[in-house]
Amino acid sequence: MDMQVGPPQTENTNSAESTTDRPSTRMTKTQILTLISMASVNFSSMICYSILGPFFPNEAVKKGASQTVVGLIFGCYAVCNLIGALVLGKYIVQIGAKFMLIAGLFVSSGCTIMFGLLDRAPAGATFITLCFIVRSIDALGFAAAMTSSFAMTAKIFPNNVATVLGSLEIFTGLGLILGPPVGGWFYHSFGYEVPFMLLGCLLLIMVPFNIYILPSIEADPSKDSFFRLLTHVRVVLICFVIFTLSSGLGFIDATLSLFAMKTFHLSSGYVGLIMLGLSLPYCLASPLIGFITDKYPVSRNRFTVAGGIITAAGFFLLGPAPFLHVSSQLWLLVVTLALIGFSLGMTAIPTFPEIITCAHEKGFEEGLSTLGMVSGLFEAFWSMGMFCGPVVGGVITQNLSFEWAATVQGGMTLLAAFLLAVHSVSRRRPRSVQEHSQQSDENTPLLND
């Protein structure tokens, strides 16, 4: 690729030439192709991921799986995603960002098709074991694609990370929006296999498409590690926020469909439509939040804290919480999902560029290797939450109720927002004291009369 007007594609490129000129507002060919590629990856990956929600828990129960086992099937995906994200994020330069993304898409497409054949497996231990195996391999492919996608996006759009990620979340949201109703409708009309076959083939088509349009990026490996990045207190608190958000989403994926079917006597198709209430507001909020936080970086923390508080309130109303003494209503469920979806955009979008800023404050070099580690760390904590949410939520739902499980999720989200707010206030005070002392020193006369 000869066009180097925008961000450089090699880390050895001399950046002195760009310091005298103002950055162009027009996107280069490399940036346009990357945007198209990442949009296709986000959409196809998320639509394949989200089709399980409306009908798989009910199908798994018919095959002899308990609510806890269903949660573990959802959760094992997250565990393998966590491991894959950490390893692949560390070695993204050695493996190659483009190869990692394409290989991840290929593996995920094959596993999606194979998952559609599991209804032919005998009920009981055989079905459950095959679900764990296929789902785990699929998670490694997803980890490769998403880790590479985040890192390449941050590398090619260094000055507009939140804006671009927020815009790409439109396609993530579209995948989440279309996945449940499309999956539920195909399942209701044609049976278990058809949704997985169609969407697996869609993901497979993305492989040659991205081979052709995705630019290659050369970089030098870094000697930094995840452990050094986690010595930054703010990074740890942001990762806890990420964990609580994904935990809540995983809990909703694994338990909401059964709760809605049992409480409101809905079919799988209508459950898929209800999940639009979560995905659509997130899809609309993400690019707006990304644009604002890129233009005003100081607002990242405020959006993250405010979004966390609103998300917590949403989970308290999702059941609703037993201590509220409010009966469950279908309209309240839809409104609450919309509230959670919008607040997720407020909270999640600023976290990735904020971790990048913290990494640079810690002395990490600017380059694909650092971005790969940040991307891997983000995916790892997101996956950790996606494991704990379904598992813990499934156990609490089975032994207590859905209402109490949602309350626990809201409490964790509120705690994460509170800790981040306290840390931000404690950081601001020493800075203001230091600035006041410096101003006092400047006003002190050099010679006393």
Automatic annotation (TrEMBL):
UniProt-annotated stretches for the region Disordered: 1-25, 430-449
Localization annotation: Membrane
Listed transmembrane segments: 32-52, 64-87, 99-118, 124-145, 157-178, 190-214, 235-258, 270-291, 303-324, 330-349, 370-392, 404-422
Keyword entries, A-Z: Membrane, Transmembrane, Transmembrane helix, Transport
GO molecular function: transmembrane transporter activity
PANTHER family, A to Z: GH10249P, MFS-TYPE TRANSPORTER SLC18B1
Gene3D superfamilies: MFS general substrate transporter like domains (1.20.1250.20)
InterPro entries from the UniProt entry: MFS, MFS_dom, MFS_trans_sf, MFS_Vesicular_Transporter
Compositional bias per record (Polar residues), positions renumbered to this chain: 7-18, 435-449
Record domain Major facilitator superfamily (MFS) profile: where: 34-428
Keyword Transport attached: yes
Primary location class: membrane
Membrane topology designation: Multi-pass membrane protein
Entry's Gene Ontology cellular component terms: membrane
Listed name of the protein: Solute carrier family 18 member B1
Superkingdom field: Eukaryota
